[in-house]
Amino acid sequence: MSDQENKDYTEAELAEMSRDEKMRLGLALDDVELVEYRDNWPVKGTRAERRAERNVAAWFALAGLSALAFIAVFIFWPWGYQPPSDPTAHFIYSLYNPLIGFFLGLSILAVGIGVVQYQKKFIPHEVAVQQRHDGHGSSEVDRQTTAAILADAGERSGIARRKMITRSAGFGLGAFGLGAGVFALGGMVRNPWSEEGQASLLHTGWMPEHPGEKVYLRRDTGNPHDVSLLRPEDIDAGGFETVFPFRESWRHNEEELITSMRKGDAPVMLIRLRPGSKPVKRKGQENFNYGDYYAYSKICTHLGCPTSLFEQQTGRLLCPCHQSQFDVVNTYAKPVFGPATRALPQLPITVDEDGYFVAKGDFIEPVGPAYWERKS
Ligand code: FES
């Protein structure tokens, strides 16, 4: 290093130096030698340079348009399930996931290509060699020379005078950021407390809509118009059936007949234990069963898969997703194996005067996986 580079600079001396001088001083202090420097566009404003600018701007514009399309699809596309019996509606519904994936992916890809293209076309090519040496803190000289180097790099890249690229990049990255925000916040927009004045997270289709209303246990025959209600004699000892809620007011309501069996918290496993089983009952739920018949939510308390298997020898319900096992006989459907940590909620049931199973009320605790107010 020369004496000039070694000297201590006062703030007044630094203030008098141009940015170019500070940049050169910074390189010298860091022992950096520029051995090659090539400006991609030594002659400014050529047609080729403008074409390259348009190319980069087009990628950022595409990123912005894709991000806006993603937001529009995410918010407005009809995402609710439509059965194959209505081919047009089913086709439109089935496009929801592919479309949000396509537009989000295209937006990310276009941002990436735009950045790479800009770097390749407009950042000057340079080769620098730096000698290794001990760092010497962050003095005022270091701070100012580093700022000068960064500002110089920004200017040499030409970003300040390439308005088309800065605007398109602002649009593309801004829309992309907006899309990421919508993606994160979208799920919180719906107010679960506003639905018909009731908290939809705290009740299920098993809750009577007015006092005295019967909610029957119905099996799924594959035809939503075929209402098949269950009686005790319909299930053999050691057997089980998946059941859904049904109320008479739905009998001629096509929409309810279909949607009542699609609700995520509706499926229940109605189990008939083998004679002689002596199940341990949960405190406060001693009268939730009807004889040997026990009804438990089918929704696994781990991640919400259907606990579709019942092993009659052991009296365990099995979840096929991650192998959680719930012991119906000895621990009122508490998990005894696997990742689930909470018992399956039990539905209180009885048999009405006509001999059909009915629910005595809704679940007394939330159904499904992790829930922020659940205590058990
Ligand atoms: S969802 Fe049932 S064990 Fe994971």
Structure description:
- Strands 3, 4, 5, 6, 7, 12 and 13 form a 7-stranded antiparallel sheet that branches. Strands 8-9-10-11 form a 4-stranded antiparallel sheet, with no helix packed on it. Strands 1-2 form a two-stranded antiparallel sheet.
- The chain has 9 helices and 13 strands.
- The protein is elongated and about 100 Å long.
- It has 2 domains: 3-188, no CATH class; 201-371, Rieske Iron-sulfur Protein.
- The chain has helices at residues 3-6, 11-16, 19-29, 47-76, 87-94, 96-122, 140-157, 163-185, 254-259; strands at residues 32-38, 125-130, 215-219, 228-229, 240-246, 268-272, 293-297, 309-311, 316-318, 325-327, 334-337, 349-351, 357-359.
- The longest helix has 30 residues, at 47-76.
- Strand 3 and strand 4 form a beta hairpin.
- Helix 3 (19-29) packs across helix 7 (140-157), helix 4 packs antiparallel against helix 6 (96-122) and helix 4 (47-76) packs parallel to helix 8 (163-185).
- The protein has 376 residues and is of the alpha+beta class.
- It binds FE2/S2 (inorganic) cluster (FES).
- FE2/S2 (inorganic) cluster is lined by residues 300, 302-305, 319, 321-322, 324, 338-340.
- FE2/S2 (inorganic) cluster (FES) is lined by residues 300, 302-305, 319, 321-322, 324, 338-340.
